[in-house]
Each structure stands twice: as structure tokens, then as C-alpha cells.
Amino acid sequence: MSALLAAEWTRLTSTRLWLWGVLAALGSGGLIGLLALVGPENFTPPLPGLDTSQGTHVLLGLLGFTVFAPALLGTIAVSSEYRHRSITTTALFAPRRWTWLVAKLVIYAGAGLAYGAIAATTAGASLFGVATLKGITLGLPAATVAALLARIALAMAVYSMLGVAVGALLRNQVTALVAVGAYFYMIETVLMIVPGIKALYPYLPGGATAALTGFTYLADAIAGQTGAAEAHLLSAPAGGAVLVCYALIAAAVAVVAPLRRDIM
Amino acid sequence: MNVEVRGLTKTFGPASAVTDLSFEARAGIVTGFLGPNGAGKTTTMRMMLGLVAPTSGTATFGGRRYADLSHPSASVGAVLDSAGFHPAHTARDHLRVYARMGRYGPARVEQVADLTGVSAFADRLTRTLSTGMRQRLSLATALLGDPQVLLLDEPSNGLDPQGIAWLRHFVRELAAAGRTILVSSHVLGEIENTADHVVVIRDGRLVTTGPITGLYATATVLARSPQADLFAAKLGQSGIRVERRQPDLLRVHRLSTAEVAAAAASHGVMLHEITPERPTLEQAFLDLTGGSG
Questions:
Q1: Residues B167, B190: one domain?
Q2: Does B241 share its domain with B178?
Q3: Which residue does chain A place closest to B92, by CA atoms?
Q4: Which of B213, B236, B252 is the endpoint of a domain?
Q5: Residue range B223-237: average pLDDT?
Q6: Any CB–CB contact under 8 A between B67 and chain A?
Q7: I need a surface site. Which of A140, B87, B197, B252 has the fewest CB within 10 A?
Q8: InterPro entries, per this entry (chain B) (predicted)?
Q9: What pTM value is reported for the model?
Q10: Which whole-number Å values give the CA distances from B139 to A50, A129, B172, in the listed order?
Q11: Contacts from A200-203 at CB under 8 Å and sequence distance 24+?
């Protein structure tokens, strides 16, 4: 397994994918800083300012909304092997196909964590920087902000694994990318409107993510619009565990079904 | 390490790609795997390597299936197609990834690059490589583990004449060093000077297997006679295959000149000419595979 991990690491670091990852992480963290500079009170519609707990929460939550980016990087990692047909050689060097899928999951969990750490650090630094610049105090204690940022970084690691699993499951790069994007930005939101499914929300990837990142804006908004009671989210560790389960299930399905398919 | 294929069969829905195929490839010789395009050569090789699951049958290397080998890439190397590189990798990056996967050191990467001529373009991105360069890179990848068995699927595709000569020499050297080599081709000229032994398939079925010299056993004789019609009919009645080349010229299959002369005498047919034909391998191949190869 160590050889496979080393190979995946070499594969990741020898193309520019990692560079794009770092840029995306810096960009998403920096975007939070930019929004902080504009100030939530100047959004349309206006939201509570940075010096309120809710205002700080909203900005951190927006960072949580970018978890799809590391998921896409994980998806690209697997689907590009099918697209460029290097999968043949990979399967020859590691005929037990689950082994290299596990190696990819591990490497991309690490890469996702690194992505999350960069994004969270950039976002944290810019939030505190903007607060100092504006001469205000953030609406949440520094320790709480740090804890929420750490949870977002963790969510990004889990989402990278999810991305790898989806890539292995769907194989076609474009289909996989569209599926990942469409699910997080559309399908789950649409599902939330269906009354019965709403009860399941805490256990859906989005709900589990909200529990892990502590960002309940979407759940609250839908509860507000539908007049229904708020969905009760899981605790952060439970939300994280649910997400890891999704990644493992997707990986297991990928091993059992598509990886057994013929490589022509 | 010998390679043994037993009763290998693959069906895709109602269509059979390979049917009950059995053959062997032995250590120390080059086995040519011949067949027209679409005969099932690639599917067979992919089944041998566990990339395609056989419907039935087995393929073993030294008695073990590919996936059961303790260190597959050190036992069997394969060149299957000239694609299969990440376009943003250099040739050296590609070799480094798979060297790591197979636990081969950086020195081995340089060795196989030198051996295959990849060194000349090792720092170029794979998307900029020509087909011939890609073939060399595929071969270098297959050689990383210094394998005992080498499966090459149409390795000359895209190589220039110089490259083909180089490959021929290279493959012969590997076999001389005791390696087991299976080379597929639909172009007989490539195999003629390389292979010792041949396995011929058509429509997924074995046509013949044996020493390459055996293919020449399908000798033909040209017989010119003013009674060509009569002679052709008499030979046909005896189950001998005859082709009409010209109104008075017949090509008689699988008989020696003496046998043709004897047959003519026994039927009272006058002959004006008897010429033995040493068939080209191409002709032998067409005969074996039914003519339309």
C-alpha cells in the first residue's frame, strides 16, 4: 500500500492539479476576506454586520459552501485516469483494483485537508484582518471562529474523498463533474422542498455538511420560507461521520460494481 | 515462465469475441500471435492480464493467474496500446509514477528510458509525443519490473522502419535471454523474422499453432496443362484444393511436384510445366484463415 500511496502522491504532485488546488483554496479564502471587506450589512438583502455573531457565521458558512471545489479535484483525480486511459497501466501494476482506489482516497483526503487548511487559514486571517482594519471586533470569539474554520477544513477533506468515490463510480469525467456540481447546488436544495424528504435532511450530504461546518443558513432559510419547523441537524462529529460514511459507501460501490467492469 | 491459455472464451451479449481458445507461449522463444484485425487478439491479451473478465477459461503465467502473481509487474510486462498517458505528465513523470507503484527505484527509470530510447524525449509532455515515441514509452513502462514475460499487442504500430528493426532486434535479445514473448500482429512481415512459433486465430478461434516453419508446409505447385479443366476436375474429386490462375494454369495446394506429376499421369493428363511455389507467409496465412484476411 505504501508503494501505491507514493505513486498517487507522485501523480498528484507531477501535474499542475495541485497548483490549481492551492490557487482555488487561496481564492475561496480570499473571497471571504473580500466579502468581509464589503461587509454583510451592505449585501442585498442586508445581513447583520461582522460585529454580530450571525454576520460572522454567514461569512464562515459561505466558505463552507465552497467544499465542492476539493470534491471536484478528487473527482478529476479518478475520472482523468479513465479519460486518458492510464487506467490500463494502473490496473496492470495493481491488479487488485480496490487497492489503488483506497490509495487515491487516502492521498486525496490528505490533499483535501491541506486545501481546507489553506482556505480556512486564508479566510481566518482575512476576517481578523478586515475586523482590525474596520476597527471592529468579530461577532464570535476567536476560539469559536478557529473551531468553525477547522470544521470546514475537515469537511473539505471528507468531500475530497467523496469526489474520488464519485469519480470511480461514474468514470466519465464530464458526467462526474456535472453530477457532483448539480447535486450540491441543485438537487439537494430541490429535495429540501419535498416535505417528507426534509426530515431526512440531517442525514443527506448537505445536512451532514451543515452539521459539520455549523452553517445552517440554508436549512434555516427553507424552514423560514416553508413555515415548517427547523430541521434539527446532527452534532458536528455525527455529521462528519455521516459524510465519511457516504464516501465509504460510494467507494465500496465503486469497488464492487464499476471497478469490476472490463477495461477495454 | 511459460504462459498457458486454456479454453478462454469471451462473449459480449450474443456476440462471441473469443471462443474456447487454448495455446501456450514458452520461455526463450518469441511466439507470434497472428490474426486479422478484429480476430480477438486484443481481447485475448486483456483477458490474460485480468483487464477483461473471461466468460470462461483461464490464462496463467507459471501456473498462476495474473492477479494472483505476488509481484505482477515484475513477472509480466504488457504493451497494449499507445494511449494511456496523462497529457500533462512528461515521459519521465509517467515512468516515475509507475516505478513507485511497482517499487522500482529512480535508477530503474533511467535504465529503461535508455534501453528504449525514451531518454531522448524524457522531459517532453506526453501529449506532444508521436505514436512511435508513445510505443517506446509504453515499452519502457512494461520493462520497469524487468519481467519474465512480455505481451506486446501490435507493438510496431506507428514505428518507423528503423524503429521496427530496433524492436525486432530487441525482442529477439529478450527471448535469447530466456524471456517469454508473445507478440500480436496482423502484419505478417513483422512476425516472419521475429517469431519462432505462431498462434493463428480468426473470429476468436484458433486456426493453427506450431513452429513458424510449419506455415510453409502449405506448399503449392503451379501446373500448366492444355487439359487444365479435366485435371482440375480430377484433383477436385480427390479432395485436393485447386485454384485457376490462367485458363491453362492451375495452382495445386498441399501436393509436391512429384505428387502432382503422379496425379497427372494416373489421370492421363498432359503437363507442360510444373513449378514448385514457396509460399509467402502472407499466402500461407490467407490459406489458413480462409482467404479474406
A1: yes
A2: no
A3: A14
A4: B213
A5: 93
A6: yes
A7: B87
A8: AAA+_ATPase, ABC_transporter-like_ATP-bd, P-loop_NTPase
A9: 0.81
A10: 61, 55, 15
A11: A201/A231, A202/A231, A202/A232, A202/A233, A202/A234, A202/A239, A203/A234, A203/A242
CA distance B22 to B26: 13
* CB distance A113 to A204 below 8 Å: no
* Residue of A2, A92, A101, A256 to mutate when probing chain B, most B C-beta within 10 A: A92
- State whether B96 and A10 contact (CB < 8 Å): yes
Q: Is B15 on the interface with A (CB under 8 A)?
A: no
User: CATH no. for residue B95?
Assistant: 3.40.50.300
Residue B179 clears pLDDT 80, i.e. is over it? yes
Give the CATH number, domain containing residue B263.
3.30.70
B222 vs A: CB within 8 A: no
Q: Do B66 and A95 touch (CB under 8 A)?
A: yes
Q: What is the mean pLDDT of chain B?
A: 89
Q: Which three cell numbers stand for residue B228?
A: 487444365
Residues B137 and B236 in one domain: no
- Asked if A229 has any chain B CB less than 8 Å from its own CB, the reply is no
B66: left (phi over 0), alpha (psi -120 to 50) or beta: alpha
Residues 6+ apart with CB under 8 A from A174: none
Quick: pLDDT tens for B53-78: 999 999 999 999 999 999 999 999 99
Is B103 within 8 Å of chain A by CB?
Answer: yes
**Residue given cell 497548483 in the structure block:** A19
Please check whether residues B137 and B200 belong to one and the same domain: yes
Give the chain A residue whose CA is nearest to the CA of B73.
A93
User: Do B175 and B79 belong together in one domain?
Assistant: yes
Structural domain includes residue B131:
yes
- Cα–Cα distance for residue pair B43/B170, rounded to 1 Å: 25
Q: Where are the alpha helices (DSSP H) in B79-130?
A: 91-101, 106-116
